[in-house]
Design a protein that fits this description.
Distance between the termini: 47 Å
Number of strands: 3
Number of helices: 8
Order of helices and strands: HHEEEHHHHHH
Length: 149
């Protein structure tokens, strides 16, 4: 499920994801989240994601749902088990991946409107709330402000 998390998908969107939402025939392939919380949105799939999708599909064998029709709360429980086994801080939640995805795109200078469309935010304020810059990005901004006349 890591690939879905990194796209900034919500756990309910992951649970509802159907094979009919994945189009491998387009170039690049896409995932369409039709039943999104705010508005339908699309994700482009890079080659590694496409390969991983095929692996998940083969492993689970569900003819309808990508992740076997798992319930949203089961996703959270599975994440908590993995977090404990991997000794990851309690501060990291499944929802942290949405912050990570939005912040990564901001650091890579993906335009705000596109980030909002991908993550599914409808306001600038919500997008800003989900953007946490890394130390690297903070240093780049500090350096840039010092260079201004």
């Amino acid at each position: 499920m890591r690939w879905a998390e990194e796209c900034g998908m919500r756990r309910a969107e992951i649970a509802r994801l159907k094979h009919s939402d994945v189009d491998l025939e387009t170039n690049p392939p896409i995932i369409v989240i039709r039943l999104a919380k705010t508005q339908p949105r699309r994700f482009y799939m890079w080659p590694q994601l496409t390969a991983l999708y095929r692996e998940v599909t083969a492993a689970l064998g569900d003819p309808t749902h990508v992740f076997g029709g798992v319930r949203p709360d089961s996703i959270t429980q599975a994440f908590e088990r993995v977090r404990r086994v991997a000794n990851i801080s309690n501060e990291v939640t499944f929802h942290s991946f949405r912050y990570e995805a939005n912040s990564w795109m901001a650091e890579k200078r993906v335009p705000r409107k596109l980030r909002m469309q991908i993550i599914g935010h409808v306001s600038d304020e919500m997008s800003d709330h989900y953007t946490e810059f890394s130390e690297t990005a903070a240093q780049i901004m500090a350096d840039a402000s010092e260079q201004k006349p």
